[in-house]
Design goal:
The protein has 234 residues and is of the alpha/beta class. The chain has helices at 13-20, 28-44, 67-73, 86-96, 134-144, 161-168, 181-190; strands at 55-59, 78-83, 101-104, 117-123, 145-156, 194-201, 226-232. It has a seven-stranded mixed sheet, sandwiched between helices. Strand 1, helix 3 and strand 2 (78-83) form a beta-alpha-beta unit. It binds S-adenosylmethionine. The site of S-adenosylmethionine has 20 residues, from loops.
């Protein structure tokens, strides 16, 4: 069985991540929760937000860090955590076995029928994937979304100097290639997704947490530590 890059990092993934983001003053769970909260808030403004029993795909879910938050913000949803790393999936299942199903991906064809999910979510996955593969994989995610289904791609923002430093100094980011927000938005469009929105996130560290209430006015400023692109299958 072929080992993937994250098989060797899976056991120490959380500790490495925690060390790498210590300048932010936050734990890995803070970054996991803000993403799912953003998704829930954005979806609440769409028809999908009114559907209680969503089928959710956590694409590249790793050791399952987002799973408890997907269940917290979407309590009636069925969550599928998918990854190419078998070791990550084993750990995810040990941590959150009852909260999701854990599915291996061969990196080529998603093992699901067309139109299986209402929501797909990829948190800091695409910078670990060869850029030449992005449009093909995004189209594959589009295939398994239902009509009007929504995809959220969260990524590190290469224009933020602290993010760029954190990625350069992180062991599991050794082979990572960050993607600018406009480029990622273009790739989603090339994959056939529509109604694209790009929003920049995470402007203030824990020490300036009182300023975070201003972040919703800054989502067009391309300097946040991360961004997301939201898109729909038309
Ligand atoms: C930085 S981790 C992020 C994990 C999780 N999304 C999180 O927020 O904690 C990147 C994950 O992407 C996975 N990955 C890499 N290439 C992939 C691919 N082609 N398809 C799906 N997942 C992939 C890795 O195995 C790893 O678990």
């Amino acid at each position: 069985m072929q080992e993937t890059e994250f098989d060797k990092f899976a056991d120490e993934y959380r500790a490495l991540h925690e060390r790498n983001i210590r300048l932010s003053g936050e734990a890995p769970e803070y970054f996991a929760e803000y993403k799912v909260k953003d998704v829930a808030e954005a979806l609440a403004r769409t028809a999908a937000g009114r559907k209680p029993d969503l089928d959710i795909l956590d694409f590249g879910g790793g050791i399952g860090t987002s799973v408890p938050y997907l269940r917290k913000y979407f309590p009636s949803a069925a969550v599928t955590c998918l990854d190419v790393s078998r070791r990550s999936l084993t750990l995810a299942a040990e941590r959150f076995g009852g909260l999701a199903r854990f599915v291996h991906f061969d990196g080529v064809t998603l093992p699901f029928d067309d139109c299986s999910f209402d929501l797909a979510f990829a948190a800091c996955v695409f910078h670990h994937i060869d850029h030449d593969e992005h449009v093909r994989l995004l189209a594959e995610i589009r295939r398994v979304l239902r009509p009007a289904g929504t995809l959220f791609v969260f990524e590190h923002n290469p224009l933020n100097p602290l993010t760029a430093h954190a990625v350069r100094s992180c062991a599991f980011d050794e082979n990572a290639h960050m993607i600018g927000g406009p480029t990622m938005k273009r790739r989603l469009a090339q994959a056939g997704l529509a109604r694209l929105k790009l929003k920049y996130r995470l402007f203030f560290p824990h020490a300036l947490a009182s300023l975070r209430r201003l972040e919703r006015y800054l989502t067009a400023v391309p300097l946040g530590a991360q961004y997301y692109v939201m898109a729909q299958k038309s």
